[in-house]
Hints:
A hairpin with an 8-residue loop joins strand 4 (622-623) and strand 5 (632-633). The protein has 5 domains: 2-126, Transferase(Phosphotransferase) domain 1 (Transferase(Phosphotransferase), domain 1, Orthogonal Bundle); 167-194 and 231-252 and 268-313, no CATH class; 334-426, Helicase, Ruva Protein, domain 3, CATH 1.10.8.270; 434-552, Ypt/Rab-GAP domain of gyp1p, domain 3 (Cyclin A, domain 1, Orthogonal Bundle), CATH 1.10.472.80; 600-624 and 637-735, Oxidized Rhodanese, domain 1. With 741 residues, the chain is mostly helical. It comes from Nestor notabilis (Kea).
Amino acid sequence: YPSYLAPEVIAQGIVKPNDHTQCDKPLPSGPKSDLWSLGIILFELCMGRKLFQSLEIAERLKFIIMLGCVDDIVTVLAEEHGCLDIIKDLSENITALLKKCLTFQPSKRQVFKELLHDSLFSEVSSVYPLFQKPAGLFSSSPRCANLTLPEDIGQLCKDEDNDYLAERSIEEVYYLWCLAGGDLEKELVNKEIIRSKPPVCTLPNFLLEDGESFGQGRDRSSLLDDTTVTLSLCQLRNRLKDVGGEAFYPLLEDEQSTLPHSSSSNELSAAASLPLIIRERDTEYQLNRIVLFDRLLKAYPYKKNQIWKEARVDIPPLLRGITWAALLGVEGAIQAKYDAIDKDTPIPTDRQIEVDIPRCHQYDELLSSPEGHAKFRRVLKAWVVSHPDLVYWQGLDSLCAPFLYLNFNNEALAYACMSAFIPKYLYNFFLKDNSHVIQEYLTVFSQMIAFHDPELSNHLNEIGFIPDLYAIPWFLTMFTHVFPLHKIFHLWDTLLLGNSSFPFCIGVAILQQLRDRLLANGFNECILLFSDLPEIDIERCVRESINLFRWTPKSATYRQYAQPPRQASESNGTRSSMSCFSADYQEAPQSDLSRDSIKLDDLKAEVSPRISAEDLIDLCELTGPSHSKTPIKKTKSSKPKLLVVDIRNSEDFNRGHISGSINVPFSSAFTAEGDLVQCPATATLQSFKGRVVVIVGNAVKNTAAFAAHLVKNKYPRVCILDGGINKIKPTGLLTVPSPQI
């Protein structure tokens, strides 16, 4: 408002930058300008009249600018408005305060903090204790630092008829109210706050050629309406009437059960087995999950393991944003870090970001709103600026979308989650030259298809439909480019529990859902099929990808570029309590039995994946020197998990082989047509079809060729031992058959 503008703001003039994101220098308006405005308001209160009432706006502004030429601004203002007597009657400390506020030069004007120490406020400052910002959820300072408990704990819970629902946060209650059948729009229509208008009545009476319209009153929805509408909780309370008080205070230390024992706990257990989409709409079930997760998240990182455990069941949609942040291990002063990043200075990537945002998940009201676009722009720019070694690739906007949607009012957390997600699942994908990373990734994916579904792999290779043609947008955006947000939430709920190789299993699960159509079609039809991906059942996709993940040996998906190099301090097993489901193969300490990195061309030449000697020993349940002095075979209650096929000649095999392995010499294993030659050993191999088959030999070329032949014969789960038999020799795990007498 003109009369209250500080001189430096007026001196700036009216700035109209061509693009609101590109302002050459920051505007001078700020806390010091507010101090001038406060001085004018205090002056008016002391004088009992408004200033500059008789002057035109231009004159007012000129007058304020001219105050720079005078020594005592307060006296000049008083003279101008004929109230010098009132000024003289004011106490000295009030006059001093007015002079401090109305200092012409902003550099000499005090800041609010200094002003609070003024003698005028000494009487009241003791009454108002300093505001202390509570520690944020992921901050490094302890959240319980200022916690005080009453002398008598009994005081906390003396009311028998407690209204437990009223103790929950407004967000939780509103979310549950909606689940219980509440409809906000309907309530607002009933109170006539939302009024529908026939479209014909919204047409303008007069329209200029530049698009300016006249003859229509302003739409009421764009005007401020401070009507308060109270929403009735009767329906929700009725829905939750059977929920006991203990549901609101679950016992977290009780290992036996995570569900509260109430009269309705049987129904709750039954609800846990229902499909996820139904569980997410069940008011009582969601109340229990929200209360439980709220308690666990407030104890993060102390309860990190239990958050992982509960997230495997499901994640309540209301708390999905912060639960994901906890699963990604976000911590520290996230707001301060985000604020410190320059998100305003123009950078070369701005143009591409501006083009991509209006095409990213725009069916969603939040992300398509102007505010959504502005937030998108800031978070993406923050990521680009803070990762100078990486570049903006198309698809980064899709990757940002789930985090922004879930943390729409907390950009810093959205940025922190995205910054934690990319190094874990997409390490080095956003390098300027990322071809070697992507090529390695796609080659391992091809091997995974051959490992899990050899028939489909054979068909796709025959028609030349390679992953490069369809899978790059899948992995570069972690499927956010191909699925709508509601499907991504359910997919990522599981993805975040898995390690960096889990996306391969999701990719194979998608292909298996389209399996029949892919097998029946040629190259052109497959291209068309993927250009507009058919409806995918995401629940089935998640189930199948978990199953595929469990069948995949950890080292089979080894990639050179899978993870950032680890710091020495991190190798103390911080993740030891995490399950193997989420730990990465690269995180395990490396030994002589681990996978060796190989050239990309060699990797591309192999149809089946390699597995490490460690994995083989583990899967064969052999106990080597690392576990005990003498290698012994564990007692087995069930059929072995895998079959080891030794393809060396029989002399070498008899000199020493892996216990339980069969000998199928490579030279005589296959007919000219590529079929297996019938013999007792190949009969055993056929009986193991469907289980993991590990090919062991001396020459890499032979083992790879043998594995490729088995894949051609539709043998699933075939893999090669990395380093061949020579890797196993030093372990002392080879057995020599007793001589035939």
